[in-house]
Structures are given as C-alpha cells and as structure tokens.
Design brief:
There is one protein chain. By secondary structure, the chain is mostly helical. The chain has one domain: ABC transporter involved in vitamin B12 uptake, BtuC (Orthogonal Bundle), CATH 1.10.3470. The chain has a two-stranded antiparallel sheet with strand order 1-2. α8 crosses α10 and α11 packs across α12.
Length: about 350
C-alpha cells in the first residue's frame, strides 16, 4: 500500500463513515428519548434509496402506498381514541396528518414519476414520504408499549424490522437499484482524485448534524426532547407530552434515515434487505458512544467506516467481520468501567 491508495481508502472510509454517523446519531436519539433500540433504522435508509430509484425509473414507489395504508390505520386508531375521550376537535388534525398528507404525497409521486429529469424534486418527495413514515411507526408499534421494559421494546423493534423487510420485498422486488449521482465532478489534489459525490455526502452530513445541533440547543421542541431524554417522569410533571416527544423523535430518526438513503443510493447498489447491514454499522457507532454520547457515537461511526475501508484492501472477505468485531473491545472496556448496575423494578 502506498500513500495514494491510503488516501483513496480514507476517502471511501470517511464517505461511508459520514452515513454511519448519521445513523448512529439517530439510534442514540431514539434510545435516549423512548428507550427503543431502533433496529429498523436501516430499513428507512433502504426505503429511501429504493423510493428515489423507483422515481428515477418512472415508477410510483411502493412506499407511497405503504404510507397511505399506515396513515389509514393510524387515523382509525386515533379516531376511536378521540371519540372515546370525547375530544372530537382533534378529528380534523388526525385526518389531515394521517390521511390527507399521505394522499398528497402519493399524488405528488404519481405526478413526478414520468418526469425523470427532476432529481432534486424527486429527492424532496422521497425524503417527505419516508420521513412521514416515522411517527406512524411509533404510533402503531411502540406508543402502545411506551412503558414496557427495554427488552420488550427491543423484541418489538426486531419484529418491526422483519415486517419492514418483508414489505420492502413486496414494494420494490428483489432487484437492486442505484440512483444517479448528485455530482459528477472530480477534484484533483496532487495524485489523488476526489469524487464530487463523496464531497457532497460529507458536506450534507455535516449540514444535517449542524441542523440537529441547532434544533436541540436553540428550539423549544429540541429542549423538550432533551428534557424527556434526561428524565421522562420529570418531563411529564412539567407538562411535556412523552407521546409527542416519541412521535417527534421518530420523525427526526426517519428524516435522518431518508437523507442517508438518498446520499448512499448513488454510491452502492441497494436491495430491499440492505438496510439491516447498514444500520448495524451505525449501531456499532452508537455502542461506542454508549447510546448516550452523540459526539462519541459519531466518532465511533467514522472509525467503523475507516476500518471497513482499509479492511477491504487487506482482507476484503472479512471486512464485515472486522468492522463488527470492534464491538467486543468496546463492550469489555465498558464492562470494566461499570461497577454497579441497578435492576429495573418489575411491575
């Protein structure tokens, strides 16, 4: 290996690591606020990539129909709850967010599918469709079990992963897809050529991370989510709705997954089940951060990307094994630092 090869591998590692960092941040956010280890985070990435690919092929993406079906189910549940509690004023908002909005996005996808030259508009519709799935997932799968133990929530999360994988096969088929890159530019720095797509991915990831920082530090809803993450009971006592916090958290996680999907789609071929492997690498970064530290999770995800890239040069057949083996020393180190673990009270 010479310097030029090392720089090329570092470029690939940082590009992939930027995607993994976004997923790690989403996993830490969801766990901190809702105590859910969100296994299907990778499926949102795959859904986003395949939705954009479908639009570029002139097809109406299956996720648009899935969104309508999920919206009808959520609207039915929320309407029954509103009528039972005699809160009929909520009915217009329930129907608007869960029925009208999905139908509008479906109409936008149907209108946009034949127009294959509108990359940025296709990207916008893709992000909107996948992002809207987030709160619906929370309402259907996790909100009824919000007070359950972490183990029960993990089991539900794994079940949702399998359901979403099956729905992905139904919606997109078994064929893989890759989208048009956002930039075909090439930047030459000495003997190394840097692709414009890599620069775009890293830049977009940094912008999204900065936007998340601004949201949590400067906005009321962001501070409410931080309060919920610190103390759920205390947040409820001061009037913060943990249900709203959960939906908002899943909205942000779905948005991160949607953006990650459109960023990774031009780099590699995505299949309906590719999201699990991508999500696991973000999970390794979250483990390094202890599911608590956002900076540590992001740095851990970058480390995973670099390790994976250099492993592909030295031992390409074992690059996945090497990347996931990184969990073992981290868990050992954390177990040596932990002196006391309090068991949860069983009800």
């Amino acid at each position: 290996m010479n310097l030029d090869i090392a720089l090329l591998l570092a470029q690939d590692g940082l590009t992939n690591g930027a995607i993994y960092a976004l997923l790690a941040l989403a996993l830490v956010l969801v766990f901190a606020v809702t105590r859910v280890i969100f296994v299907p985070q990778g499926e949102l990435v795959a859904y986003s990539a395949l939705t954009l690919a479908s639009l570029q092929l002139g097809k109406v993406p299956g996720t648009a129909w899935l969104l309508v079906a999920a919206g009808v189910a959520v609207a039915l549940l929320d309407t029954i709850a509103a009528l039972r509690d005699r809160r009929t004023r909520r009915l217009p908002a329930i129907l608007g967010w869960n029925v009208v909005l999905p139908l509008v996005l479906l109409a936008a996808a149907r209108w946009l599918a034949p127009r294959q030259d509108s990359l940025w508009l296709q990207t916008l519709v893709t992000v909107a469709i996948v992002t809207a799935l987030g709160p619906m997932l929370y309402r259907l799968a996790f909100q009824p079990l919000a007070n359950a133990s972490v183990l029960v929530l993990l089991i539900v999360s794994v079940a949702v992963h399998f359901v979403m994988t099956g729905l992905g096969l139904l919606a997109f088929g078994a064929e893989g897809s890759r989208t048009t890159p956002f930039s075909d530019a090439r930047i030459t720095a000495g003997t190394v050529t840097i692709s414009g797509q890599s620069v775009f991915v890293i830049g977009a990831s940094l912008v999204l991370i900065a936007a998340l920082w601004f949201f949590f530090e400067k906005t009321l809803y962001g501070k409410a989510l931080r309060a919920t993450a610190v103390n759920r009971l205390g947040a409820r006592l001061v009037g913060i709705s943990t249900t709203l916090a959960g939906k908002l958290t899943f909205l942000l996680a779905a948005a991160i997954g949607a953006v990650s999907g459109v960023l990774v789609a031009p780099i590699t071929t995505i299949y309906y089940d590719s999201g699990f492997l991508v999500g696991l690498k973000g999970f390794v970064g979250a483990i390094i951060g202890g599911f608590a530290s956002y900076p540590a999770a992001a740095l851990g995800a970058l480390l995973v990307g670099l390790l994976e890239s250099f492993s592909s040069f030295w031992a390409s057949a074992f690059k996945e094994v090497i990347a996931f083996t990184l969990i073992i020393p981290v868990l050992l180190w954390r177990s040596f630092r932990t002196h006391h673990v309090e068991e949860e009270d069983e009800e």
